[in-house]
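We include the pair:
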Amino acid sequence: MNYIRRTIIISFLLSLSFVTTAQLDEVYFKKLQTEKVTSSDEVEWTQFGPGMSGYCEEFWCHPTDENVMFMSPDMYNSYGSWDNGKSWQTIKDVDGNGKDMRRIQSITFSHQNAKFGLAIDVRGHLYRSWDKGRNWQRDASKDFGGKHSELAVDPSNDNNWYMGGGDFWNVKANHRSKDNTLGYVYPYAAYGHIYKSTDKGHTWQKKTNGLPSTLDVGKIIVDPTNSNNILAATNSGVYRSTDQGENWTLSGSGLPNNLPRDMDYYYNKKDNEFVLYVLEQTVFKPNGNSISSIGGVYKSTDHGASWTSITGNLAIDLTLVTSYTSRDKYYKSVAFWLGITKEQAKTKYPNYPNKALSVFNRIKVNPNNKDEIYLNHNVKHDMAFGPGDIWKTSNGGSKWIATARTGSYWIDNKDNNYWTNIRNNPTDMNTTFAHLHHHMTEREETWGNRFLEINSKGEVFACIEQQVMRSNNNGESWQQVDDNETKSGSKNWIGRGDSNLPGRYMLLETGIKERYLFCSGEHGLWESGYLDGYPDKMAIPVHQIEGQNNTNGATSIASVAVNPKNPDEIYILMFRQDHRGQLRKSTNGGKTWQNVSKPVNWSADESGDMMFQYSLLLDYKNPKNIYFCMPENAIAEVSSNNVPSAFKDFGVYRSLNGGSSFTIENTGLPANSSVRRIIMDPTTPTTLYAAVNESKTKVKGGLFKTTDQGNHWTKMTIPGEILSVNNVFIDRNTKNIFISCGRYEGTMGEGGVWKSTDKGKNWTKIFEMPYIWQTETSPVNSKIITVVAALPHENKGASIFNPGAYLSLDGGDSWKKINNNIGQPDEIPDFKPDPYTEGIYWCALKGSGWSVGYSKNITEGWAKENLKNDVVGINILDLNNESIKLFPNPVKDICNIDIKLDNKNADVQIDIINMNAQSVLHLQKNTSERISFSTQNLTPGMYIVSIKMNNTEYSRRFMKISE
C-alpha cells in the first residue's frame, strides 16, 4: 500500500512543471514595480508610418511664436512642434504610466513669457511648462473635480488665468436641439463654474456668481485693453464679467439665439482696437412647407456689450445645391433639431430653403486682418451639411466662400452655375493630401473636421478627414502637413512624427528580405518603401498597398501572412469596416486584392462591431493549411469591449483548402475560453501552441498544444500561479518556449515572462512585472529578448509604474527599459527585434503608428537607397512585340525576370553563367509572366543571364551584391 502511495505521489510530482526564478534580479524588478525608472539610452525610437491618420481633436498655436504649436489627437497621444510643423515630438512622459497629457482640452501660453504655459487634460489634471511645452509637470495637488474644457490667460498679465468646466468641445456627442439647447452632460466633467487664479495657476478660486449650475464653457477671452472685462461663450449663452470674473451676467444683446458655438477676437495693439466675434448655433424653425435658419456670425466693437450680424451671404440655396449628400445631411440636421425623424422632416418640409445655414462650430479671425474670418463645420460628426469644410470671408462678413474644397462634388463641377455665377466662388478642389488623396477625390464632402486654428502669422490649420491641413496663402489652397514624400509621385511617405494611427501587427519576415508589412486600424496595410534620396537616412519610408489607395479597399487589418513558398501571395484579415470578417488575398505582391472567403460571419454594424482576429498562419510545408484565432477577451485592442455580446464563435479557425472554407477547432480547450495567440512549431507544422488568456467571464487561461493540426488540444503544465497566458513564442534556434503572463487586475506574482528549455517540462521566470503582453527573441541572436510590459488597472492592478518596452542582451540575466520617444508606453501591441540586424527593433503603438528603434552602435538606417527587392534597376530587351525585363539590378536576393511574349506557351530555359563561363543555375519554365530565382548562393560579382525561347537566345548581365 505504501509503495502504491509513493508511486502515485512520485507520478503526480513528475507531472508538475519545475519552476525556478534563479535568473531574476529581484532588486531591479522591485524598483520597477514601486517607483518611476528612467529609460536607458541603449535604444532611441523614431516614429514612422503615415502622419496623423486619425482625428485630431484639438490644435493650439503659441500666441507669440509661430514656430510653436501643439496637437492632441483622439487616440490619447499629444505632440508638440517647435519648427512650424516640420517635425513633431511627443509631449507625454515616456517613463510615466501613459495616462498623462492625453486628450488635452486646452494649452495656453503667457503673452509676456513665451516659455510659460499651462494645460488641462481630459481628466481635469493641470500641467505646467517652463520650456515652451517641451516638458510638462502635473500639479498633483490640484483636484478640479472632473473634466474642464477651457483655459485662458490674461494677455496683459500672465498672473491671471481662468478655467471653465464642462465638455463643450465633444463634437461627436455634444449636439444641441430645440428641446435641449444646453447639450449633453458628460458624467466625468465638472459644470457650473469658472475657476480663477491670480498667481500663475498655483492657487485657484471657484467663481459661480451669476452662472447656472449647468454651465458648460467653450471659450474665455480676457479683454486685452481691460483685464477687468472678460467674455465667456457657454452652452447657456455669452456671459460677461466686468470685475475680473467675480460676477457674471448674460451679454447677448443683438444675438438672435444667444447660443454661441465659438468665439474669437482681433486686437490691434497700435490703435488699441478690440473686436469680438461670436458664431451662433443654427436654430431651425418651420416656415410652412420649408424651414428657416436662424444663426450666423456676429461681432462686437463695444467689448461684448452688444452684437451685430456679419452673416452676409453665408447661407446656401438648397434649391440650387442639388447634391444628394448635402440635401440628405440638411434633413438630418433639421430632424435632429426638431426632435423628429429624417423621413418626417422630408414629409413635413418638402420645399428646400433658398437660405439654409449649416451648423458651424468653429470661428477664427486672422490676427493681422480683422476682415479675414474662417468658419468650420463638421458634416460627419456634428449636425452640419453642405459643401466646403471651411468657409471664409475676406471683407468682414459681407461675402463668404467655401475656401476648402475637397472631393467629387467640386471635381465633377456639380451645381457649377450656382457657385460660379451666383456666388462667385472658386470651384476647383484646392486641398492636397498624402496617402488619402485618391480616397478624398472619390466622395463628396462628408469629412469630420474637429478643429480650426490660426497662428500669429495668419497661417490656418484644420483637420479635414484624417489629415492636418495648412493654408499659408489665406485659404486659397490647403496642403497636408503630416507627411513628407521621399520624392514627388513616389507615394513613399515618411511621417513627421504626429501619428494618430492605430498601429498593429508587423510582419518582418515576408520572403523578401527588405519588404516588411505593417497592419493598421482604419488605414489598411503598409509596406516598407524606398528612401529615393531622402536626406534623413535613418527614416523609414512606407507606402500603402491596401486601404484608401484602392477603391473599396480594406482599411482595418487584423493580421497578415505571406505564403512561405510564394512571397507575392499575401493574405489579410479585417476586424472592422470594409471587408470585415473576410480572408483577403493578393497574388501579385499587393497590387490587387480579392476576397477568398468570410470565415468570421457577422454582418451587423461593420464600423462599430469589432471582430478581432490574430495569428494568421500558413503552414510552411503545405500553405493550403491556414490558421488564425479569435480571442474572446481582446486585450490590447482599441474598443475591445465593442465585440457584440451575441457573437460566440471564438477560438482557433482552420482551413485545409487554402482559405476557401474554415472550421473552428476548439476540442480540448476550456469552454468559453479566450485564445489570444497561436504559434506554429518551427520544425513540425502539424504542432501548434495556443496562448489562452483569462476570458471576460473569468475562465482561467493557460498554455495548450496540438500535434494534429488542431483536431485535439491538450493542456500543458505551467506554473500554478499563472491565470492568463497572453502570448507564446518559440525561439527558432534554441527551441526555447516563452510565455507572457498576467492580468489587467491581477497580482504581481502571476505576471511575468517564463521560459522553458525542455519543451515545457520545466519553467524559469526571467521577467517579473504584473501584466505582460508579448515576448520575442532575435532570430540572429537568441540572447536578445524583447518584452512588452503593459499597464495594469490604475486602481485594481498590481503596479502603476514603468509600463513599456524592455530589452535583454544577455538571455534575460539583465534588462533595460527602452521607452525613449515612445509616447504611449502603456499600450504597445507589437514589439520585436529585427530578424536580420542586431541593434534594430520595431514596435507598434496603439495610437501612434509604428516606431523603429536603433541601438547606440547603429549608425546606418534600416532603409537602403534603391536596394529593396523591387524595381531598383531594370534591364530591358525590346524584341519587336516582345520584351524581357530583369530586375532588380544590382540584386541582393531575389532576381525577377518579366517576360512578355507573343507566343504565350513558349518553352523558356534560363541559365545563370558566371565570369568563368560556368552555369551556376538552370531553370526551365513553360511560359510565365514572371520568373523569380534566388541569388543567395551566388558569390558577389557579375553574372550573365542566358534566356532561350522560340529557338532564340538572349542574354543580359546583372550584378550580385552582398548583404
Q: What stands out?
A: Residues 493-855 form a domain with the Methylamine Dehydrogenase; Chain H fold (CATH 2.130.10.10). The chain has a mean pLDDT of 93. DSSP finds seven helices and 68 strands in the chain.
